[in-house]
Amino acid sequence: MQISFKGKRVVVAGGSRGIGRSIALGFAGAGASVSICARGQAGLDATAGDISALGAKVHAVPCDLADKEAIAVYVAAAAAALGGIDILVNNASGFGGGDTEDGWRKGLDIDVMATVRASNAAIPHIERSGGGAILNISSISGLGASARSASYAAVKAAVINYTLSQGLMLAPKKIRVNAIAPGSIEFPGGLWETNKTSNPQLYNAVFKSIPWGRMGKPEEVANAALFLCSDQASWITGQTLTVDGGQSLG
């Protein structure tokens, strides 16, 4: 199945590393113009260079996605730079972790409210384009209870539920909304690569829990993202697709 995004304008909020980076590169490789934001300039510059090398138009600027005003400024700038918005990917996470004030604050500010705010800022642009798609990145942690990362699990569950509501609310505007719930994804500088050396007991326990026998790759989430945002998924909205090698089946 050939998926083309030629002529499409894609915004990836949290697109400089890991899953977000792979999604941005996937869209660029399929012909889209892409805007990315993140807090770190170095990661943005590196990813922007990789997108440009694919021959795609790229817009990349720093943005603190915990900041309401900064999100509005970024989305408006992305729309101006790309000439509009067809697709929004909400990928950023505060990785709040446990049942702590700090964990809850990070998760609510970034995982939940950045998704709400970026969506609301982008919706008028997507509607003007004739309709498009929003994709929210959740986690398999949001599918059940978690003693280790209670706040993270709760906010990711909220993203899944909000995806259902967005799918219903935005159908009249011809905007499809779906989510992906990735399992444990390993990439350079990411949580699981870090845990491999800093917390090998946890890493090995999680590794052994995955029926497919390995950690996931960011590109595998990106492939699912491109499908859900493509015309091939034109009758799919309000759904969450699990991409985890069977990790959540145990």
Automatic annotation (TrEMBL):
Keyword rRNA processing recorded: no
Record Pfam families: adh_short_C2
Source species, domain of life: Bacteria
Molecular-function GO term, any one: oxidoreductase activity
Keywords from the UniProt entry: Oxidoreductase
Family annotation (InterPro entries): NAD(P)-bd_dom_sf (IPR036291), SDR_fam (IPR002347)
Entry similarity comment: Belongs to the short-chain dehydrogenases/reductases (SDR) family.
Protein name, per record: SDR family oxidoreductase
